[in-house]
Amino acid sequence: MLSGAVTNRYTQGLFKFAEQQQAVDKVDESLKLLADVLGAHPKLQDILNHPLIDADSKANAITNVFGEALDPLVARFVKVLLNRGRGGYIAAIYERFHALAQAAKGELTVEVQSAMPLAEEQLQEIEKHLSASLNKKVRASLHVDPDLIAGCRIRVGDRVIDATIRGALAQFSQKLVSGATKEGTL
Q: Which tens digits make up the pLDDT trace of 91-124?
């Protein structure tokens, strides 16, 4: 299980150093590349997590896979993580770093789940309304989930705005169940 405190400590250190070097965007892009590849190739992540493979061999594997594609700061950071047995934290660190980088620019990415694909205009309208209410430049990431039946669910950090038929049915069902347990009801 990954520790949020460990993730935050490493991310904060990397972010502060990247700010000093004026390399936040480059580091963000490099971490995204690294996290995406590790997510797409679980065997590479397994190598980084394997307790019997030494840190130098793991670092060499990263160098062989990514070569010059990784920003030198990220390559050094990954070596530090691997030397400390924290290779499993890379994806979590990227997510946190990306959120910090966006916040520093006054941006926010929200996840929009929809029962059906949305037109670009609809997505832009959602971004416009959320930008106005949150006072940030909002970018929407769309995911289609037919199980929602109709409507959409918007996730902003830890908050969820559920405007789906599935959500409405679940709320209605909960009200029926809780109402039926009161005295004098069926």
A: 999 999 998 998 898 888 888 998 889 899 998 9
Sheet harboring 159-164: ordered strands across?
Answer: 137-144, 107-114, 151-156, 159-164
Region of 22 please: left (phi>0), alpha (psi -120 to 50) or beta.
left
Q: How many domains does the chain have?
A: 2
Domain that holds residue 18: 4-102
Which tokens hold the place of 2? 């990954």
Structure token pair of residue 168: 């409405």
Q: How far apart are CA 37 and CA 35, in angstroms?
A: 6
Determine the Cα–Cα distance for residues 33 and 7; give it in Å rounded to an integer: 18
Q: Is the predicted pLDDT of residue 175 greater than 90, yes or no?
A: no
Q: Are residues 37 and 9 in the same domain?
A: yes
pLDDT classification of 183: cutoffs 50, 70, 90: low
Per-chain mean pLDDT for the chain:
87
Distance between the two ends of the chain, CA-based, in angstroms? Answer: 45
Q: In this structure, are residues 118 and 84 in contact, taking their beta carbons and an 8 Å threshold? A: no
Largest CA-CA distance found in the chain, in angstroms, rounded? 72
